[in-house]
Amino acid sequence: MAHAAQVGLQDATSPIMEELITFHDHALMIIFLICFLVLYALFLTLTTKLTNTNISDAQEMETVWTILPAIILVLIALPSLRILYMTDEINDPSLTIKSIGHQWYWTYEYTDYGGLIFNSYMLPPLFLEPGDLRLLDVDNRVVLPIEAPIRMMITSQDVLHSWAVPTLGLKTDAIPGRLNQTTFTATRPGVYYGQCSEICGANHSFMPIVLELIPLKIFEMGPVFTL
What we know:
By secondary structure, the protein is an alpha+beta fold. It has 2 domains: 15-88, Helix Hairpins (Orthogonal Bundle), CATH 1.10.287.90; 95-221, Immunoglobulin-like (Sandwich). Helices cover 30% and strands 26% of the residues. The strands form 2 sheets. The chain has a 5-stranded mixed sheet, with no helix packed on it. A hairpin with a 2-residue loop joins strand 1 and strand 2 (105-110). The chain is elongated, with a radius of gyration of 24 Å.
C-alpha cells in the first residue's frame, strides 16, 4: 500500500501492474527529454543574438519538428495499446467473483462456491484493533488465491462506483444496469487495499476494498472465509 511522502507508484503485485509501471517509466523518460530540449532552446534564445537572417527560412528544421513529434507519439501509443489489449484478455479464469457497489459498501458473491454472498463494510474507528488501518480496513475481506487467473464481475445497484486496487493495476467502473469485467493474476500473498475511485455521494471516502491473497494450496483446502 502507499505510504507517507511516496512519490512513485505502489509495488506491483500482478503482471499487468508491472507492465503499467514499465510504461510509466518509458513515457516519463520521453517527457524528460522533451522538457530538456525545450529548456535548452529557451536558453539559447535568451542568450544568443539572432543576427543570422537565414534562420527565417529553414525548411529542413520545420520538417524535423513536424516529423519528430509524430514519431514520439507512435513510441508512446504502441506500448499503450499493447497494455490496453492485455487488460481486456480473459483467459479461462479459475475463479469468478461478482462485486456489487452500494452506497456505501460492497457486496461480494463467490459464484463458484454455491453462491456465497457477503457484505463488506468499513470498520468504524471504535472497532479498529492494533495494526488495523483507519478508513481502509473492512469487517469482511475478500480472500483469493495467488498464481491463478481471477475474473471480477463488477456492477452497481444505485449510483456510479469504481472498484480499484492500485497494487494490482485494477480500476473498473461499477455502473447500474451494466456488468463490467476485469481479470488479474496475483503474484505474491499479502493484504492489499483499494477504495472506490468514483465520487458516489457523501460517504464516498468510506467504502474501502481489502483483498487477502493466500497461496493456492491453502485456498483449495477448504473455506477460509470468516464471516
